[in-house]
Amino acid sequence: MNFGIVRTVVAKELRETLRDRRTLIIMLVVPIFLYPALLIVVEQLALFGQRQLEEAPASVVAQGAGAEALAILRSDSSLIVATGREATPEAVLRGEMDLLLRFDAPGGPEQPRRVELFYDGSRDRSLRARALVAARLDEFADTLLARRLSVRGLPGSFAEPLTVADSSVASAERLGGYALGRFLPMILILMTLLGAFYPAIDLSAGEKERATLETLLTTPVPAREIVAGKFITVTVIALCAAILNLASMLLTFQFAAFQFGGAIDIQFSLPASTILLVVLFLVPLAVLFAAIFLGMALRTQSFKEAQNTLTPVQLASMIPMMLPLIPGIPFSYAVAVVPIGGVALLFRELMSGSAPMGPSLLALGTTIMYAALALRFAASSFGREDVLFGTGAADASASRRKLGERLADWRRGGRTLPRPAESLAFVAVVALLYFYLGITIQIRAGEVGLLVSQVVLLALPALAFAFAGPFDARSTLALRIPSSAGVGAALLVILGGIPVGWFLAWVQGFFLEIPAEFLTALEELVRAESTGELLWLFLLVAVTPAICEELVFRGALLQGLRNGMTMSRAVLLSSAVFGAFHLSTETVIRFLPSAWLGLLLAIVAWRTRSIFPAMMMHMVNNGIIIAFVAWPALGERVVSPDGEPFWPLIPIGILLLLVGVRALPRPDPFE
Amino acid sequence: MIVFDSLTKRYGEVAAVDRLTLQVGRGEVYALLGANGAGKTTALRCLATLLVPSSGSTAVDGYDSSAAPLEVRRRLGFLSASMGLYARLTPREVLEYFGALQGMAQAALSSRVEELLSRFEIDAFADRLCGTLSTGQRQRVSIARAIVHDPPALVLDEPTLGLDVLSGETIHTFVAESRERGRAVLFSTHTMSEVELLADRVGIIAGGRLVAEGSIAEILAQGDDVSLSRAFLKIVRGTA
Q1: ipTM tops the 0.90 cut
Q2: Pick from B78, B89, B101: CB nearest A221
Q3: What sign does the dihedral B140-B143-B147-B148 (CA atoms) show?
Q4: Does the distance separating the beta carbons of A218 and B76 come in below 8 Å?
């Protein structure tokens, strides 16, 4: 790597970028002016609204109030109290008054009195009237209580058997750090992302659109040095944007705290060491965003196309950024590895002054790893002619044709197998349908719904994809009769793989807790009181997924990936997709065991080039769960109630697995 | 100086360039004539190392474009009508940037930049952003950019496309000068008058293949016509 050339590229890119209005706005104008302006606007609006409310007194109608209660209510000049008997709660709704009080008729002198308040919770004025009246009623209650105590000759302290005096031990700085840690990480990471967004597009797709990339690539500079220069530029700009935002936000909050004076005991400042650490951890994050955006934008042909391509990534990145906003999420090892989210939570901990060493280092390490992968992705695209000039004029003209014509063309182009992108797109559509429709069907129709959703939303689309697409359906779904040796090897692989899967799930249990709701739902599903119910359960949990899920994942998906990927990549990707398909809204614990099962199934399906051994393995795997339900004593012998596997099974499992994998057809005779 | 040896470039089943063989010597101007989509730009991009040949090879000054792409780029000045300039840099900054990427030393680069600014009359707008320049001014900057490292070989892909007569004249003068300085010049064009004015030899490319080659007189003879345009059409249509 010639660093002199990289420096030249960086200097030129920075100079050019700093002359770009969009980048300047994101990098300088937003941080310098946005936060102070927001503070002033919000403050002024709040004051204006408060003044509006205070200028007009709240109109209240009190029914059944005695003279004393009326006097106390009327002592508040912000209230206009009438005593109309005809008023109804509907009148409050119509806005004819802000609040209606209904006092019950007084009982004896020591009987409790009851008063009902009717207000409109969707109207500010009505809510304010409620607050004002509640304060007056408290005063009235105190008066009544004091009178009762006086009648009995009791001291005022009699009614206060316990006095609670609470005080937060957190210092003003710590409180400020806690408050900042809630939302500052999100804004900071968002600004890093936005800081990288436009320069990445401008320096890649923008260069292509302006036809300067071709000029650049005629110079005697290796592509890696050009991409390094561009990448450093985007990273530097993203970091500068983040640091300027951090500084501006801290100054604005400090100014706000100063304005409020002693009204709030909180200080929005961070120690220099914390700021330094935050900036340090921002570096790999900026690298990650720069590399992802640059790598993706390079694959597009225009600024607009790049924006369209990158916007979904930008939106998806915002989800993990919000983790610190959710109360109660601990900064554990498990969340530390979540891309972006781990660093966001780390920032929260740093700002609160208590970042644990282990998860912090893990968050840093994994972010560096993600950044390195993204960088490799960016570098791989640069200099490639299809990336530089597109895939040819034929594709450009194809994009201008109508969807129907393109679909007809697609169907005419006969191929043995789908392309990886086609298979992935198919699985994405199926997964979305299953998520939205499948859950609805299962909620409405219970166990039958589960069966129907598997057949209708998984198996039928897979068959439709294979038979209606321009592929050989038998190859696409790997509908090939396997050899008996292949079936035997598959059986060994699953029998060996299952105990290893238990072990993985047990290890995972140290990092991820199994939610009680998840266990309850599972127990509900796999309950069987009779032989008939057990058979139904076997059909529902073992047979149906073995057929339907295999058609999608080891059929349409894996066979498409086979058409353009190495075995290791295709197997890993398909198992990750299979694991992700089993994620639910409550928990992520199913990802690892499912991905492990997916891995075994994919290896076997790849080697045997048949979906049937994978179906059998899937059925065996799920069937064992049913067996544990039917014979609980058996289940407890191999896996203890706290998830610990019966240890002698693990080496046996590994041995079976190795023998099984070795016995699979190799080399693949069809490759 | 410039060699195409049975160069083939395929996109799937389609051969954009099909076994193209030609040579351009020092001090020679070679015009590559062809209709749109004939394969001219693809062939020139292969030579400039922007595209990887499917088979065959190209070379500049003895360096193979696939085996030693950086050496080829050091010896080649590439200018295309479709190549842009950095709109947010000034002409001076553009020349300094490309000179630095060519590995020129600072002192030599500074004097070379001043020489080119003066030679192509860029001085007057040397410190204005390229985005504010006229098409003719931008073309002069592009020429200067292409030869900032004083390459022995020049490739010009439809260099006068979209230019007015005055700007076109600048290109013609530049090509003639380059020949006098001993550069090998390979240019593609649709304009017959340009070929007649500049070219020492002409190659006609159709469907990715070189269908005719020779001096203008030889092309006219092969096309059996006194007009180069008509001779070109006859050769391309296979009626000559």
Answers
A1: no
A2: B101
A3: positive
A4: yes
